[in-house]
Design a protein that fits this description.
Layout: E1 2-6, H1 9-13, H2 16-25, H3 35-42, E2 49-55, E3 66-77, E4 80-87, E5 99-100, H4 105-117, E6 123-129, H5 133-140, E7 148-152, E8 166-171, H6 176-181, H7 185-199, E9 204-208, H8 214-233, H9 237-253, E10 257-258, E11 260-264, E12 267-277, E13 282-290, H10 299-313, E14 318-320, H11 327-330, E15 335-338, E16 340-346, H12 361-373, H13 377-390, H14 395-407, H15 411-424, H16 429-441, H17 445-458, H18 463-475, H19 479-490
Parallel strand pairs: 4-6, 13-14
Antiparallel strand pairs: 1-2, 2-3, 3-4, 3-5, 6-16, 7-16, 8-14, 8-15, 9-11, 10-12, 11-12, 12-13
Helix pairs in contact: 4-5, 8-9, 12-13, 13-14, 14-15, 15-16, 16-17, 17-18
């Protein structure tokens, strides 16, 4: 089994038809692993992501038979860079997992696991994985407990006791009446009575978002949701509202969102966002919000019943309430499935292979730079060094590590970094200036002079270069040349015989015994 790694959006775009073919063939596939949903999510994901793609051989003509979306998250702690490997959909997707043609899973899943074991990570987060026991065993068998620590993470909310690893869902019948007959008599009568209130012209009504109304409907939904959850979510609420809004907008634009709003005359009192999977014929309830001050019919029951009826009428076969075993969900006749949250960690807490994945470089650089600015030089240094282990000529890491080493007085080590930097960025004046400065700190004034002259060549209008050159020449006893430069600088610019100081170039290796003072 051959594994390719897909890590750019253009490469992912080319796979749409292949991906959809695998998705349609896999009974375990669900909307958060659909090409359409993932393409939208990954296009806005800041951290590095990649997709393992499996096929039967290396030939470009062979189609892929399975896909596993992943992403990296890094942190610097305990004097090392520690990398987490996560499912790509985490923090937006209620479910994660693998899509695979069923006939290939016995070969594909162990091949995926072997590929993952060759990567640089300390923790593998298999979070919210919706996968059969058969597939889970195939995957986890490649991570023996003798080599990895296993933790099964519970998802019971401490505030309200809701178990978010339990996911209620309905298998929908062919018609609405058959569905109603599957419910208890009380629930059946209640739903009929409530829907009659919105079906009949009067005080209550339901509208469904259109391109013209979507922006306002979404604003209504998110406003209600924010009001309810702000006390619990705290400072995270703004980012959650923004990310949910962006995801739901992308879904609506792709035809994958059903958003009804419940009204009391001209007052919106509740809205419900449901993801629509036309390929698997599934409705997946994602988010609801309601006006907590409304004292009227139960808006949540009405909107769910309205949505279930719509799904049945349009030939959908499943209505999924997603994560959480809230009691009200079971009144609609649900059964439940369980998802898993398993964390695998290396025994020593360090990345496999000891280094970082090249895809992690931008994030590690950002983390190290932030620590550097906060004065946490030890952790910042390990971040820079981990980058340079992977990419020895990474200009920003070289520059910042050189600055850090110089600041703590290790001028010889700083010189090595800046020397490499001048070969990587020979046209960067700052690199030559920094190299000149550390040479001065080492007492190597002749060498420092050469670096400062190169800085002057690249930045002729910067007085810093002249000052540094003069300082070095003074240390070397070449005072007559400094006098000439100063006189050139203070003569009237209109004098045709005078060279401006920025055009002045001393000869670096010229020696002079002159020790006269600089002329005033």
């Amino acid at each position: 089994m051959h594994i390719d790694i897909i890590e750019t959006l253009p490469s992912l775009a080319k796979l749409e038809d292949n991906w959809n073919g695998v998705y349609d063939a896999d009974d375990e596939a669900q909307i958060f692993l659909s090409w359409q949903w993932l393409n939208g999510w990954l296009s806005h994901l800041q951290r590095p992501w990649f997709i393992l793609a499996a096929k039967a051989g290396e030939s470009a003509d062979l189609p892929y038979v399975a896909f596993l979306p992943l992403r990296l998250q890094n942190r610097i702690e305990k004097s090392d860079v520690v990398s987490d490997l996560r499912m790509a959909g985490n923090f937006a997707a209620d479910y994660t997992g693998i899509i695979c043609r069923p006939e290939a899973e016995n070969k594909v899943i162990p091949a995926f696991a072997r590929c993952i074991r060759q990567m640089n990570w300390a923790r593998l987060n298999l979070e919210n994985v919706r996968m059969s026991e058969r597939r889970s065993r195939l995957l986890l068998a490649c991570f023996p407990k003798a080599n990895f620590n296993y933790t099964e993470v519970g998802r019971v909310n401490k505030v309200d006791g809701i178990d978010n690893s339990l996911c209620p869902y309905l298998t929908l019948p062919k018609d609405w009446n058959s569905y109603l007959e599957s419910l208890s008599a009380n629930t059946r009568q209640k739903i009929r009575r409530l829907l009659k209130q919105v079906d009949t012209p009067g005080e209550y009504r339901i509208t469904v978002s259109t391109p013209e109304t979507f922006a306002q409907d979404l604003k209504t939904l998110l406003g209600f949701w924010e009001t309810k959850w702000r006390p619990r979510k705290g400072d995270r609420i703004e980012s959650l509202v923004a990310s949910n809004g962006a995801m739901l907008t992308r879904s609506f634009q792709s035809g994958m969102l059903y958003l009804p709003t419940f009204w009391n005359r001209d007052r919106p009192v509740a809205a419900l966002a449901t993801l629509v999977d036309p390929r698997k014929r599934a409705f997946l309830f994602y988010m609801t919000g309601r006006d907590e001050t409304f004292d009227g019919p139960p808006s949540g029951v009405i909107l769910h019943a309205f949505s279930i009826r719509h799904a049945i009428a349009n030939g959908f076969s499943e209505y999924d309430f997603l994560r959480g075993n809230e009691p009200y969900k079971y009144s609609f006749g649900c059964v439940e499935r369980k998802i898993r949250c398993t964390v695998l960690e290396t025994r020593n807490g360090r990345n496999l292979g000891g280094g970082i994945d090249p895809r992690s470089i931008p994030e590690v650089l950002q983390l190290a730079t932030e620590l550097h600015r906060k004065g946490k030089s030890t952790d910042a240094e390990i971040g820079y060094r981990r980058i340079l282990e992977v990419q020895p000529k990474h200009a920003d890491a070289l520059h910042r590590l050189g600055q850090l080493l110089a600041a703590k007085g290790d001028f010889a080590a700083a010189k090595r970094q800046f020397r490499i930097l001048t070969t990587v960025r020979p046209d960067a004046a700052k690199a030559w200036q920094c190299l000149g400065q550390v040479c001065e700190s080492l007492g190597q004034h002749e060498e420092a002079l050469r670096q400062h002259l190169e800085f002057m060549r690249l930045q002729p209008d910067q007085p810093d270069g002249f000052v540094a050159v003069a300082r070095c020449m003074a240390k070397l006893g070449r005072m007559a040349e400094i006098n000439a430069a100063v006189l050139a600088a203070i003569e009237p610019a209109s004098a045709p015989s005078v060279r401006k100081w920025r055009d002045w170039r001393p000869t670096p290796d010229r020696q002079t015994a002159s020790e006269h003072s600089v002329s005033a």
